């Protein structure tokens, strides 16, 4: 049985043993979007949402979530992240686009951290303006770039 598996010798779920892997620079970039009514987007853009700075709070929530991914996703390794950047951009007429970039020098990748950052940032946007638009949709959360490690580079098709 391969040492890089989520099953132990008895077939039970287990954390992958990465002790034998070399430390390398690793990067993951994920993206997603929150689609909403144009009037809701205008509230965010004008800073008039009742709960405050939607984009700023969502950015911080995404960064914090990336740092806590191993507490949220079973069998995910706790990592000492070297960079987490979360950017939120208003795209007229109806969306906030989110991108998270996560870096680490380590033995395992940071794809889950980037995806978690985007997801939590999107949920935070939703939470902060749901009172005026419960029909918002979180869409297209996906890994768009991964570099480093044994498997090399992955870049999603546009």
TrEMBL record:
EC number: 4.6.1.17
Keywords recorded for this protein, A-Z: Lyase, Molybdenum cofactor biosynthesis
Molecular functions per Gene Ontology: cyclic pyranopterin monophosphate synthase activity
Gene3D superfamilies: Molybdopterin cofactor biosynthesis C (MoaC) domain (3.30.70.640)
Active site location: 127
Keyword check for DNA repair: no
Pathway annotation from the record: Cofactor biosynthesis; molybdopterin biosynthesis
Xref: Pfam families: MoaC (PF01967)
Boundaries of every Molybdopterin cofactor biosynthesis C (MoaC) domain copy: 15-149
Protein family: Belongs to the MoaC family.
Subunit structure: Homohexamer; trimer of dimers.
Protein name as it appears in the record: Cyclic pyranopterin monophosphate synthase
Organism of this sequence: Roseococcus pinisoli
């Amino acid at each position: 049985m391969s040492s890089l598996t989520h099953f132990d010798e008895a077939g039970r779920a287990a954390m992958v043993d990465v002790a034998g892997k070399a430390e390398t620079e690793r990067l993951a970039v994920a993206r997603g979007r929150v689609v909403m009514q144009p009037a809701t987007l205008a509230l965010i853009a004008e800073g008039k949402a009742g709960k405050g700075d939607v984009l700023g709070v969502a950015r911080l929530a995404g960064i914090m979530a990336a740092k806590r991914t191993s507490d949220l996703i079973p069998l995910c390794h706790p990592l000492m992240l070297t960079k987490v950047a979360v950017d939120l951009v208003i795209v007229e007429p109806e969306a906030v686009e989110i991108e998270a970039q996560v870096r680490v020098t380590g033995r395992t990748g940071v794809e889950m951290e980037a995806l978690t950052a985007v997801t939590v940032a999107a949920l935070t946007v939703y939470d902060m303006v749901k009172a005026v638009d419960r029909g918002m949709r979180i869409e297209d959360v996906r890994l768009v770039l991964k570099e480093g490690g044994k498997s090399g580079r992955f870049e999603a098709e546009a």
